[in-house]
Design goal:
single chain, 818 residues, alpha/beta, Arc Repressor Mutant, subunit A, 6 domains, binds adenosine-5'-diphosphate, binds zinc ion, Replication restart protein PriA
Length: 818
């Protein structure tokens, strides 16, 4: 009898691939193990075993696998089921899920890798345009594959460019099969053997009196050593002694110190964190806890709806504690892990080493470690805090999932596929594990609250802030009025200006929110009306004053700010609109004594960017923090007396059916940063439309009213939650081809679904990175089957792909969250 294995390849293929295996291999292999397989002419991929069987494929002759890579599964059966659901529901392939679910170190493959040549300083001026694109891409990425390079320069064949770059010594090429994972070695020091006796030591210190820096290092080593036998890290010694690396190095050279290495986990519990006991819940929290427990007993997904600063986190902590006592694993999901330093510290204070963090900014090695700890059910990964990708960890015994800030749109993955929503995928994961799941928010999403209303989800509520601190006092300021009365100072109304002054006077801090980064989103010539556009995208370039640059926020294209109008030559370029940079700049003149800082994508790149700013603000080294929506996410500051919203209108008029819901959530969340402890905080919202219903609902904390109104509107226009939607985005660099292809597809869809098909239409930004975009939206009424709908779409897409001239048109599917 012949034996075969069906494998998942980490590529967007709709089908599983079949390879032949020997009898011995068939007995050994289990689903979830990795095998190296040949694919195409010369490629080798890491594939994952899906199932083992005896049926030869009908369409092709099965090749043999190259080798088995694991001696036990790295992915368990529950994960595979979860992946299948994700692939099916979000119209992605299993291969795409596989690829994004496991750390890339698990996907060894033989492909050419392009690396930057660090050993050689390239003069950028000697590079041609396409060479520069590749070179620049390598500044941000450690390596690129050949096909990625081809995409960057938008050419089929990247080899000529790469050859030229090679000649210029700008890049290196690396071709090998490799295991990327390497354990981390930490450098330690101890006193050299010779100096272990006290006499020798005394002599040494005498000798060193003439080298105070070296002597300081040796003394610090003693101090660190005092009373404990723990190994001493070079880093710690450096910090403690204030001595430089060079000083330590010279001591090692003289053999006064001896260095050695220990292999450690990269993701380590920070030993500086104190252990504190879990807080006793107040009566409102207790009530919520009981309601949650009751719903959990009924097996219900439950929403904890608690106003900002009501102590939701403490309720989660109690639930986690309970889960740990039963010996099960707990998963704490957050929308954006980068913003969670505060929370991580809080959980470590309670649970110590049991907390692991799965961080998108952690490197491959660090992620592999958490993965392995979870797979082995190690104590140190009993609680995992993570962003959406943490869903894919190899949990075998989950007892609880907390989805904090469940309304956050960053739970949706937009690129690449699978384009899943982590909250919804978490609910499915919870069902597979038969475990409890709690969704938490001060401003629940319409979908979730709807599910509560219909009785599908359980509900618990905390309607008071902890310590009975009042919700902030909110005030709307009419920018039209203020402008007319000439009371504006830059972008600050008199009200806001005065309040900032008073708040600073009282020794309290201020948060200012402006949902745009850069200095000004548009530069315009006041003579001819010309406004510089991105050559690759259909958007205006944003002015960044700090670098005197115009930048595209979609593709990164940037140019120096022209001195005069590129169209008419007049020196009348002016800015329109404003971003965080401009607010920060105005503060310098309006409040010269205050220390203002900016928190947005431009200031927080890199692993510790956020942390530094958040820490400095916590330590009150910053008086005024200006930021984009990064500011909204669950930060808990003690001393914020005032929150100012510079301009609420840009949020309200965003062309998206969720714009009003989002504005309500965003504004309520930012406002919630004010006055979290002790004193009531103040919030000032500036707007040209202060009578907008959403702004009124925000200032009066009328969640219910907002919900009812939005639900009604969604009903009217056949949007979720009562209906479902799928969006198809067509992408191509040829404008005509894109139009033709999307029309063809829309027509085919209309033949099946009739009225429910909208478009094709251009999105607000109709071209990004030289690719034109067009959307078709399919609205699916409640009674129409979702899976049948998707099958019809797939059938149409198969016919579409069979048409030669459409083959190069890409289609992207987004389900539910578009
Ligand atoms: P939320 O998550 O609802 O915004 P937090 O959990 O951050 O609220 O709580 C707000 C503040 O109140 C925090 O500083 C927290 O330490 C404090 N707090 C909440 N519950 C308790 C409690 N039961 N005992 C003591 N302090 C609490
Ligand atoms: Zn002009
Ligand atoms: Zn662009």
């Amino acid at each position: 009898m012949q034996h075969f294995v069906n494998v998942i390849l980490p590529i967007p293929l709709a089908k599983l691939f079949t390879y032949s295996i020997s009898e011995a291999e068939a007995t050994f292999l289990k689903p979830g193990m990795r095998v190296a397989v040949p694919f195409g002419k010369s490629k080798i991929y890491t594939a994952l075993v899906n199932d083992i069987h005896n049926n030869a494929p009908a369409a092709y002759k099965a090749k043999e696998i190259h080798q088995i890579l694991d001696d036990r599964p790295i992915v368990n059966e529950i994960q595979l089921q979860h992946w299948r659901w994700i692939a099916d529901y979000y119209m992605a392939t299993l291969g795409e899920v596989f690829k994004s679910a496991v750390p890339s170190a698990f996907l060894l493959e033989s492909e050419t890798l392009i690396l930057k040549n660090h050993a050689y300083d390239v003069d950028e001026n000697t590079l041609q345009d396409d060479e520069f694109l590749v070179f620049e891409a390598l500044q941000h990425q450690t390596s690129l594959k050949v096909h990625e390079v081809a995409a960057i320069i938008d050419k089929k064949n990247a080899l000529p460019v790469l050859n030229r770059l090679l000649e210029k010594n700008a890049i290196l090429i690396k071709e090998e099969i490799f295991e990327q994972y390497r354990p981390k070695l930490v450098r330690y020091v101890k006193l050299g053997k010779e100096y272990l006796s006290e006499d020798r030591l005394a002599l040494l210190l005498q000798d060193l009196t003439r080298a105070p820096k070296q002597s300081q290092v040796v003394l610090s080593l003693f101090q660190l050593q005092a009373g404990n036998l723990k190994p001493i890290k070079v880093d710690d010694l450096e910090k403690m002694s204030g001595g430089s690396k060079a000083v330590i190095k010279s001591l090692i050279k003289k053999e006064i110190l001896e260095e050695y290495f220990i292999q450690t986990d990269r993701v380590n519990y920070d030993e500086g964190v104190e252990n504190i006991s879990i807080k006793a819940l107040n009566e409102y929290q207790k009530k919520a806890f009981e309601d949650i427990s009751e719903n959990f007993e009924k097996g219900k997904v439950t929403l904890l709806h608690g106003v900002t600063s009501s102590g939701k986190t403490e309720v989660y902590v109690k639930l986690i504690e309970q889960c740990l006592r039963s010996g099960k694993q707990a998963l704490y999901l957050l929308p954006e892990i980068a913003l969670t330093t505060q929370l991580i510290v809080r959980l470590q204070e309670y649970f110590g080493e049991k907390v692991s963090v799965y961080h998108s900014k952690y490197n491959v090695q660090e992620r592999v470690e958490v993965w392995k700890n979870v797979a082995l059910k190690k104590d140190k990964a009993q609680i995992v805090i993570g962003a959406r990708s943490a869903l894919f960890l190899p949990f075998s015994d989950l007892g609880l999932i907390v989805v904090d800030e469940e309304h956050e749109s960053s739970y949706k993955q937009f690129d690449p596929a699978p384009r899943y929503h982590a909250r919804d995928a978490a609910i499915v994961l919870a069902t597979l594990h038969k475990c409890n799941i709690l969704l938490g928010s001060a401003t629940p999403s319409i979908e979730t609250y709807f599910n509560v209303q219909t009785g599908k989800y359980g509900y618990a509520e905390i309607s008071r802030r902890y310590g009975d601190v009042l919700l902030p006092d909110m005030e709307l300021v009419d920018l039209k009025e203020e402008t007319r009365k000439r009371k504006m100072k830059g972008h600050f109304s008199e009200r806001l200006f005065n309040e900032i002054g008073e708040t600073l006077e009282a020794g309290e801090q201020v948060i200012l929110f402006q949902n745009r980064r850069g200095f000004a989103p548009v530069v315009e010539c006041t003579t001819c009306g010309h406004s510089p556009q991105c050559p690759n995208c259909d958007v205006s370039l944003t002015y960044h004053e700090y670098k005197k640059q115009l930048r595209c926020h979609y593709c990164g294209h940037h140019i120096a700010l022209p001195e005069s109008c590129p169209a008419c030559g007049s020196q009348t370029l002016d800015t329109k609109g404003f971003g965080t940079e401009q607010v920060e700049k105005e503060l310098e003149t309006l409040f010269p004594k205050a220390k203002a800082w900016r928190m947005d994508l431009d200031t927080t790149r890199g692993k510790f960017g956020y942390e530094k700013i958040i820490n400095a603000f916590e330590q009150q080294e910053i008086d005024i923090l200006v930021g984009t929506q990064m500011l909204t996410k669950g930060l808990d500051f003690r001393n914020v007396g005032l929150v100012g919203i510079m301009n609420a209108d840009t949020l309200l008029y965003f062309p998206d059916y969720r714009a009003h819901e989002r504005s309500f959530q965003l504004l309520t969340q930012v406002a919630g940063r004010a006055g979290r402890t002790k004193k009531r905080g103040k919030v000032i919202i500036q707007s040209y439309n202060p009578y907008h219903q959403i702004l009124k609902q925000v200032t009066t904390s009328s969640y219910e009213e907002m919900f009812k109104e939005q639900l009604y509107e969604r009903e009217q226009f056949k949007y979720p939650p009562n209906n479902r939607i799928i969006k198809l985005t067509f992408k191509h660099k040829d404008y005509n081809k894109l139009n033709e292809a999307s029309e063809w597809f829309a027509q085919a869809l209309r033949n099946v679904f009739g009225q429910g098909v909208l478009g094709p239409e251009y999105p607000p930004v109709a071209r990004i990175r030289n690719q034109y975009l067009k959307n078709i939206i399919i609205k699916i009424p409640k009674k129409q089957s979702m899976s049948k709908t998707k099958n019809s779409i797939k059938r149409i897409s198969n016919s579409f792909n069979a048409i030669a001239q459409f083959q190069s048109v890409r289609i992207i599917y987004n389900v539910d969250h578009i």
